[in-house]
Amino acid sequence: QVQLVESGGGLVQAGGSLRLSCVASGRTFSTYAMGWFRQAPGKERERVATISWSGSSAYYADFVKGRFTISRDYAKNTVYLQMNSLKPEDTAVYLCAAPALDRPYVRTSSYWADDDDYWGQGTQVTVSS
User: Fold this and answer.
1) CA 95 from chain center: how many Å?
2) What's residue 77's pLDDT?
3) How is 37-50 classified by DSSP, letter by letter?
4) pLDDT confidence of 122, banded at 50, 70, 90?
5) How far apart are alpha carbons 59 and 9 in whole angstroms?
6) DSSP helix, strand, coil percent of the chain (3-state; round to 5)
7) Could you give the CA distance from residue 4 to residue 6 in angstroms, rounded to a whole number?
8) Is the distance from CB of 128 to CB of 88 less than 8 angstroms?
9) Closest Cα partner for 48 from 32, 27, 31, 62?
10) For 6-64, how does the pLDDT look when each residue is reduced to its tens digit (9 = 90+)?
11) What does pLDDT average to over the chain?
12) Which residue among 35, 61, 91, 110 is buried most deeply as judged by most CB within 10 Å?
């Protein structure tokens, strides 16, 4: 059974930092992209950052560029999201995703998870002003 488990969320003041982790179990995703997404109450789910299967390229949404960094550790089957200079508008549930099926772009930083992919349960990030 494949599981993605996020951790590292919490309450932080504006300008602070958090590091999110997503540990995968049940299979390895070393040949697939992985990504972080977020969803705030009443809003659509957004793609935050994705990293290619090799780790050599990454995509960042404009609203996190220069502040967030995605990385992965193959030995630990884990993907991270380092979040710096946090803003109140970053408040959301952050979810990790990985491809469940082969299709175009699932190995590149252009990966966009859909509902049929593997998803974690999410970790809450709350940024106070």
Assistant:
1) 6
2) 95
3) EEE-TTS--EEEEE
4) very high
5) 21
6) 0, 45, 50
7) 7
8) yes
9) 62
10) 999 999 999 999 999 999 999 999 999 999 999 999 999 999 999 999 999 999 999 99
11) 96
12) 35
What pLDDT does 126 receive? 98
Nearest to 93 by CA among 56, 127, 57: 127
HSE-up of 51 (CA within 13 Å, CB side)? 21
Q: Which residues contact 41 (CB under 8 A, 6 or more apart)?
A: none
Return the residue matching tokens 């709350």.
Answer: 126
Classify the C-alpha dihedral 72-75-77-83 as positive or negative.
Answer: negative
Q: Which residue has the higher pLDDT, 102 or 87?
A: 87
Strand partners, 73: 78
Q: What span, in angstroms and rounded, lies between the C-alpha atoms of 63 and 42?
A: 18
Q: Residue written as tokens 């390895």?
A: 28
